[in-house]
């Protein structure tokens, strides 16, 4: 029988709660990563990197500011960033890349590399960074292989 320390048990419980809350948080996602973007009503759009991409920004139902990064040539969503009082529903934002994120997050947790207030999960196809605390969350998710020429990880803000 394997025994766990109190600290390991608390970390596991906190990680489970954090992942579980992501599934029930309200969000208004208009397209998942890798999908063709649609222009939501009331969104503000700006071009980045000389038109290589555009950023569509909106505030979701929970008051969180969300920015959707769309490749100029293909019109596909390659990244999301967010900041606000609630974490967006990553299952919706990640779409078909959610299983990759979940398995990478589980591996990170099993290795003890997760943190209660911040995490970077590097999946085989998607990278997700989350951080913050109650009523002040921030994060970003992107597809490294889909970044348009001239746009790097540091440009996703």
Describe this entry's structure for a reader.
With 157 residues, this protein is an alpha+beta fold. The protein has one domain (6-155). The chain is 24% helix and 29% strand. It contains 3 helices and 7 strands; from the N terminus they run H-E-E-E-E-H-H-E-E-E. It has a 7-stranded antiparallel beta sheet. Strand 2 and strand 3 (65-71) form a beta hairpin. The longest helix has 19 residues, at 6-24. The model is unreliable at 1-27 (pLDDT under 50).
Helix and strand element order? HEEEEHHEEE
Cα radius of gyration in angstroms: 16 Å
Structure summary, number of beta strands: 7
Describe the biggest sheet?
7 strands, antiparallel
Strand content bin: 25-35%
Annotation field: number of helices:
3
How would you classify the helix and strand content by structural class? alpha+beta
Number of domains: 1
Distance, first to last CA: 46 Å
Mean pLDDT score, rounded?
83
Task: Identify the overall geometry.
Answer: globular
Q: Give, in spatial order, the strands making up the sheet with the most strands.
A: 1-2-3-4-7-6-5
Considering the chains and any ligands shown, give keywords for the structure:
157 residues, alpha+beta, 7-stranded antiparallel β-sheet, 3 helices, 7 strands, globular, disordered N terminus
List the helices and strands and how they pair.
Layout: H1 6-24, E1 44-48, E2 53-59, E3 65-71, E4 77-84, H2 90-94, H3 98-110, E5 118-122, E6 127-133, E7 136-142
Antiparallel strand pairs: 1-2, 2-3, 3-4, 4-7, 5-6, 6-7
């Amino acid at each position: 029988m394997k025994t766990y320390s109190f600290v390991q048990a608390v970390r596991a419980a906190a990680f489970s709660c954090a992942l579980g809350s992501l599934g029930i948080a309200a969000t208004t996602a208009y397209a998942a990563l890798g999908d063709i973007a649609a222009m939501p009503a009331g969104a503000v759009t700006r071009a980045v990197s000389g038109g290589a991409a555009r950023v569509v920004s909106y505030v979701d139902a929970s008051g969180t500011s969300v920015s959707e990064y769309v490749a100029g040539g293909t019109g596909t969503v390659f990244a999301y960033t967010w900041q606000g009082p609630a974490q967006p529903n990553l299952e919706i934002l990640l779409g078909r890349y959610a299983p990759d994120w979940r398995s990478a997050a589980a591996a990170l947790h099993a290795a003890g590399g997760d943190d209660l207030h911040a995490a970077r999960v590097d999946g085989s196809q998607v990278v997700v960074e989350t951080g913050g605390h109650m009523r002040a969350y921030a994060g970003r998710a992107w597809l490294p292989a889909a970044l348009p020429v001239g746009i790097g990880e540091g440009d996703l803000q």
